[in-house]
Amino acid sequence: MSRIATVILAGLLSHVAVPAWAGSMEVGIWVDETGDGAVEIAPCGPKLCGRIVWLKQPLDKAGKPLIDDLNPAAAKRKQPICGLQVLGGLQKQNDGSWDQGWVYDPKVGESYDLAVQIKDANHLVITGYQGLKLFSKKFTWTRSASALPSCSATITGAPEASGAPGAPGASGTPAASAAAKPASPALPPPAATAKK
Fold this sequence. Notes:
By secondary structure, this protein is mainly beta. It has a single domain (24-176), classed as Lipocalin (Beta Barrel), CATH 2.40.128. 9% of the residues lie in helices and 37% in strands. It contains 2 helices and 10 strands. The protein has an 8-stranded antiparallel β-barrel with strand order 1-2-3-4-5-6-7-8. Strands 9-10 form a two-stranded antiparallel ribbon. The termini are far apart. Residues 5-21 and 159-196 have low confidence and may be disordered.
């Protein structure tokens, strides 16, 4: 190819829109700081969102699926914790981190502002705050090293696994996860909670 054609092609390709999340290391399945649950972070439009895909104990003492019984919206207190969207609205920042999102903690029924940043290939720093990061709480999540059994499979008894990055046949996107979930490349908008 001639040098002029190469320059023209490079100029044209530089104007092709690339999603903010493209190549983002934050996309994947992350085990929370307690080791009791895992969240799959995936694109939702140009932003990142996350939903619970694995629970160490997906059933309550009566053997029923855990529900979001502490949700401030009474109409949402019967929704299952498994599959619940708990992260949303994360926007890519100039420094490569993601911020201006929200996180919902179903253990206390509270929502907070959210920022996430990769610490290294296997660790993600989650920062929850209310308005000012001065009063933030930070947690470190660990990338899932292998496929985890989907909490929906545990509840229904179906043999399925969450698509953990690095797992055979898994790409780390919702489409690669459990068959019970919609085969969509993006998570839906935050319907489970509203940020305070």
